[in-house]
Amino acid sequence: MSPLTYGDYPENMRKLVGSRLPNFTAEEAEMVKGSFDFLGLNYYTSTYARNKITPVDNNLNPRYSTDSQVTQTPLRNGKFIGEPTGSSNILVVPRGLRNLLVYAKEKYDNPIIYITENGMSDINTRAVEPGVNDIQRVNFHRRHLLMLNDALKDGVKVKGYLAWSLLDNFEWASGYTQRFGLNYIDFENNLKRYPKRSALWFKQFLLQ
């Protein structure tokens, strides 16, 4: 976001990533600065982060996780940052959404933001009845929307919120073992669809 906002990468990023970052001419910097219409932001979870005790050589197998020189962990003092979901890498951390939105506002000149993905998964169940009774997902979106409302009061310019996802789908390496949808798909019965409790909750929420 820094090149799109200020025309260049931040100095600490240039020090860490080095020659793998492109250099802009003055004309290119001016061209790229402010060249976006909005920021599309996907948010699922947060972790704690701390400086690496022993810095990693960025020239060995370089990637963003080594460039950052931080260690990420979901634990602090033996306690998880949020409650678990059907995905081992997604814990429920609503406050992280507000923190991220306020950071983007303060760091990048308060851009227009659309939250293009926000959601959580259940472990797949073949039975329809437990599959549609997704209380945790209702609470997930309710709590995140409350944090979004607080961010709006903080002056963040969020123009839209898209729940992931409308339907249960094929989830990358996890295949059909996880369900992110607001609507339950019966994969063994001609893809018949059933609205989950979260879909009914969203309907009432949007009618208010």
UniProtKB/TrEMBL annotation:
MF terms (GO), sorted A to Z: beta-glucosidase activity
Xref: Pfam families: Glyco_hydro_1
A GO biological-process term: carbohydrate metabolic process
InterPro entries on file: GH (IPR017853), Glyco_hydro_1 (IPR001360), Glyco_hydro_1_AS (IPR018120)
Active site residues per record: 117 (nucleophile)
PROSITE patterns: GLYCOSYL_HYDROL_F1_1 (PS00572)
Family affiliation: Belongs to the glycosyl hydrolase 1 family.
Name of the protein this chain belongs to: Beta-glucosidase 12
